[in-house]
# Entry
Amino acid sequence: MDDGFLNVVKPPALTSHDLVQQVRSLAAAKVGHTGTLDPAAAGVMVLTVGAATKLSQYVLDLHKSYRAEVTLGITTDSHDAEGTVTHSAPASGLTVQAIQEALAELTGEIAMVPPAYSAAHIGGKRAYELAREGKAVALQPRPVAVYQLRLVEFRDGDFPQVMVDIDCSKGTYVRSLAAMLGQRLRCGAYLSALVRTAVGQHRLDDAVTLPQLADDGLAAYLISAVEGLTHLPAVTLGQQQVAAARHGNRISGLACDVAEAHSPGAFVRLLVASGELIAVAEAVRDDRGAHLQPRTVLPDRGE
# Structure
C-alpha cells in the first residue's frame, strides 16, 4: 500500500471513528484522519494512509466549506437535531431581508462559544462528558473566521428553514453558528442537517464512497502526499540538501530564497527531483539568516 490521502464521503449516522475503522479494514497500512464530523453530519473527511499519517496537522488547519440546513423557532441543548428540544414557538413572518442581515452580522471575525456537547476541553475533560453527566458547562468564546454565509434557499412556515453555504476557518462549530443565527433573529434555531462540501482543495464532488473503496481498492483513489498538500508552496532540493533534509537538518542555499519569500512560520513542501515529497519544513529567520527547518520527515523509500 502506498502512502497518501483519501478524500472520503462520510455518510450520516456513521461516526468518524467508524469511518476510519472501515477504511482501515480495507488497507494494509495505518489509517488516520485530519478532522472529524459529527455523527449526524455527512460529507468530506480527508483520511491519511501509511506515512502520510504524519502529515495530518497540515490539513487540519485548512478552511472548511459546508451546506447547512437551519430550522428556526426551535432550540435544542446540543444546537442540532441530536439534542433535546429546549424551546419551541412558531417563527412565521420572517423575511429574506431579515435573514440576510443576520447572516451578514455573523460574517467575518467573530467570537463563538462552542456547544456544551462538543469535544472542547474543560479542566482535562471533554465538554460533552460533563454535559452528559448533567453538570454545568461553561465554555469561553473563541475567535473564528466566517468568510462567507450565503443564503441558498428559504422555506417559510411556522418553523421556517434556511439553507446556507458556509466557508469558515478551523474551529468553527456550525451548530453554534445556527444557534447564533436564531439569537439574532430572536426566534431560536438549531442545525437540522449538515454536509461538509470541502476541506481546502479536497471537494465533495471528488470524494469517494465506502462502497467504491471496497470495490476498487484504496490505491485507485489515493492522493499522493505531495498532491494532498498543494496548498503549501514547494521547493525542489539538490542532492546535498536532500541528505540534510532526510536527517532533519536546516536547509540553506537555494532554500534561503524560499524562506525569505514566506513569513516566518510558513510551511513548505520539500521535494526531490522526481517530484516526491520527502519532508515539510518551516520557514525560519534567526541570527543565522533565513532557512528552512524540516519539521516532518517522511521515511526514505529510496530514489
